[in-house]
Amino acid sequence: MSMSAEHAEQVKDEVAVVCCRTEEGTIIAAENLEDPDIFPDMVDSGLLTIPDNCLKVKEVIGAKLTKTIDSLTPLTPDILEGIKIAEDEKEVKEETKEDLTEAKTSQIEDMVNEGKTSVSVVGGILKIQIEEGKGIDIELPFYAGQ
Predict the structure, then answer these.
(1) Burial, 130: exposed, middle or buried (Cβ in 10 Å; 0-12, 13-18, 19+)?
(2) In 3-144, where do the E strands start and end?
(3) Distances in Å between the alpha carbon of 65 and those of 4, 11, 24, 88?
(4) Where are the beta strands (DSSP E) in the chain?
(5) In the beta sheet, which residues pair with residue 118?
(6) Contact assessment for residue 27 and residue 80, using Cβ atoms and an 8 Å cutoff
(7) Residue 38 has pLDDT above 70, yes or no
(8) Average pLDDT for residues 117-139, to the nearest whole number?
(9) E strands along 19-112, which residues?
């Protein structure tokens, strides 16, 4: 059963699954989405599997479907164009980026300049290895992009 725009606003942080077969090129609207209130029963009965990368309702409204999909298909980044990133997520990413590039960078540079620490970014992971102090080894997710 599809949703109204008002109900979609109420469940904007729930996972997005299409209610019906949806054609390639469709711009996703509330009426294309299934009401998330029924998902627990569908998952329990094996009729629906929700992947970890399933997008939220607020992220898919207005996005364009890149291929035709069957009913009860969870919406994931690989089948949509124009996904909306929530404003609060953008703010968190910006704050994280600012923290790393301003305050933390000088602290890390000080440790590296002393020759007792190595810092690298490998595969999206910030790695900090501190030899002094019993070989402290820190690895954090690192997103330098937007």
Answers:
(1) middle
(2) 64-65, 80-81, 117-122, 125-130, 136-141
(3) 19, 21, 5, 24
(4) 64-65, 80-81, 117-122, 125-130, 136-141
(5) 129
(6) no
(7) yes
(8) 67
(9) 64-65, 80-81
* Rg of the chain, C-alpha, whole Å: 21
Rounded distance, CA 120 to CA 137, Å? Answer: 12
Residue 117, Cα to own-chain centre: how many angstroms? 32
Cβ atoms 91, 68 nearer than 8 A? no
User: How many H helices and E strands in the chain?
Assistant: 5, 5
Q: How many CB atoms lie within 10 A of CB 18?
A: 22
pLDDT value at residue 101: 53
Q: Are 34 and 19 in contact (CB under 8 A)?
A: yes
Tokens of 51: 């992947």
Hey, what are 6's tokens?
């008002």
Tokens of 83: 């996904």
* 94 φ, ψ (degrees, to nearest 5): -65, -45
Over 80: is that where the pLDDT of 62 sits? yes
Question: pLDDT by residue (tens digit) across 83-115?
Answer: 887 544 545 555 555 555 555 555 556 655 666
* pLDDT attached to residue 137: 67
